[in-house]
């Protein structure tokens, strides 16, 4: 085998390795609201959450498997169901699971469990805002009668109708939320639609509303 052939084969192997890592680079999510599972990988660093604490640390793809180093974590106490989801996520990430991207989804699979996540909306270039959102929508009228989210930027302000949706977020009745969102301008919006697009970045806090 000639030296040029060896160089060519090495280049092909390097390109194949890069290609195997490319699909996971980015942000992924499953579910919505307080219990949403999120995962991102960028420049060899992983960040993940099952709706409670944020896990983060080094990670890479080797031979189609996600290999995660020691993960650091925030130390919040959350409802038991969220803590159970978090423990399951930790076990999955520690198991060197198989990982595959297909049709806008990311599949992470071990012998014990499978996690399927959707590609998250890009948050690049958006304006960061913090808002409060009521867990229940209220009747409102745009071009036709509909239901509107109730939002405000300060707890001292009255609730206001928001005629759009917050991408990646579904409120649950009986809870109020404080969210960190990304706001994007919409060119030529319809008459009954907002001029801004809101995408959930993080659920900062949620509280149960007393009856």
CATH architecture of the largest domain: Beta Barrel
CATH classification, class level of the largest domain: Mainly Beta
Classification by helices and strands? alpha+beta
First-to-last CA distance: 78 Å
Q: Specify the overall morphology.
A: globular
Please state the CA-atom Rg, rounded to the nearest Å. Answer: 21 Å
Write the SSE topology:
Layout: H1 3-21, E1 26-30, E2 37-42, E3 45-49, E4 54-62, E5 65-68, E6 72-73, H2 80-94, E7 98-102, E8 105-109, E9 114-119, E10 127-134, E11 138-141, E12 145-152, E13 160-162, E14 166-167, E15 175-185, E16 196-208
Parallel strand pairs: 14-16
Antiparallel strand pairs: 1-2, 1-9, 2-3, 3-4, 4-5, 4-6, 7-8, 8-9, 10-12, 10-15, 11-12, 12-13, 15-16
Q: Which features characterize this protein?
A:
single chain, 211 residues, alpha+beta, Lipocalin, 2 domains, nine-stranded antiparallel beta sheet, Hsp_HslJ-like, DUF4377, DUF4377 domain-containing protein
């Amino acid at each position: 085998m000639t030296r040029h052939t060896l160089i060519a084969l090495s280049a092909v192997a390097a390109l194949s390795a890069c290609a195997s890592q490319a699909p996971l680079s980015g942000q992924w999510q499953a579910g919505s609201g307080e219990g949403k599972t999120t995962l991102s990988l960028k420049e060899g660093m992983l960040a993940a959450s099952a709706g409670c604490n944020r896990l983060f640390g080094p990670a890479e793809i080797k031979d189609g498997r996600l290999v995660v180093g020691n993960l650091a974590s925030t130390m919040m106490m959350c409802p038991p169901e969220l803590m159970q989801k978090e423990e399951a996520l930790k076990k999955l990430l520690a198991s060197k699971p198989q990982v595959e991207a297909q049709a806008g989804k990311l599949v992470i699979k071990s012998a014990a469990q499978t996690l399927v996540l959707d590609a998250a909306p890009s948050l690049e270039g958006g304006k960061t805002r913090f808002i409060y959102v009521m867990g229940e929508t209220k009747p409102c009228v745009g071009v036709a009668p509909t239901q509107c989210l109730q939002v405000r930027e300060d707890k001292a302000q009255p609730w206001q109708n928001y005629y759009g949706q917050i991408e990646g977020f579904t409120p649950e009745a009986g809870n109020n939320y404080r969210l960190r969102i990304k706001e994007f301008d919409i060119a030529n919006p319809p008459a009954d639609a907002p001029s801004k697009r809101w995408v959930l970045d993080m659920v900062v806090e949620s509280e149960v509303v007393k009856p």
